[in-house]
Design a protein that fits this description.
Distance between the termini: 25 Å
Radius of gyration: 16 Å
Shape: globular
Structural class: alpha/beta
Helix content: 40-55%
Number of helices: 7
Length: 188
């Protein structure tokens, strides 16, 4: 699982990881937030209504979910993990820290990698530069990021995303070692 703060570059590193380690596939999360320009349903997220989220939650369809302070909800559907495993690949989850820690609680041998920016000033610069949220939402994300940074110590690995290629190779190394250990365990 990949986690970290908004603006740390999780999405960028996940895309680099998928190029470097073809044995993994990204689980597409379901979310109640509005679609951003260029996002496609079933590719970037499963965009669902609050009512649909409630129905699927009541049916036990989620491995984990999170309610953000500004009201949107996102979660991982069990059906995504089944889809990926059915294709002979290992599921990769990109989650916010609370969701990732919830999964770790349910699946203790899951490996959790926390991605962070080199410092808080850089994190703020990245959030403002991407211009996908209003200034009020950015302030909320920055406050949430301060709390999320405290959760890094509960993760198995922490990667500082100071340079994309270096950080992506570090992440790929962790994933390759994890896959090698999993394969060795399954064949013995």
């Amino acid at each position: 699982m990949i986690t970290g703060t908004s603006g740390a570059g999780k999405g960028t590193l996940v895309q680099e990881l998928l190029k470097r380690v073809p044995e993994v596939a990204l689980a597409v999360s379901a979310t109640t937030r509005d679609r951003r320009p260029g996002e496609a349903d079933g590719v970037h997220y499963w965009f669902i209504s609050d009512e649909e989220f409630d129905r699927r939650l009541a049916a036990g369809d989620f491995l984990e979910y999170y309610v953000f302070p500004w009201g949107q909800r996102s979660g991982t559907l069990w059906s995504e993990l089944d889809r990926i495993r059915g294709n002979g690949l290992a599921p990769l989850l990109e989650l916010e820290p609370n969701g990732a820690l919830a999964v770790k609680g349910r699946i203790p041998d899951a490996i959790l990698v926390f991605i962070t920016a080199p410092d808080f000033d850089e994190l703020e610069r990245r959030l403002r530069e991407r211009a996908t949220e209003s200034s009020g939402e950015i302030e909320e994300r920055l406050e949430l990021s301060r709390r999320q940074l405290e959760q890094a110590e509960q993760c198995d690995h922490v990667i500082v995303n100071d340079e994309v290629d270096r950080a992506a190779e570090e992440l790929a190394g962790i994933v390759r070692r994890t896959l090698d250990c999993t394969s060795a365990t399954m064949t013995t």
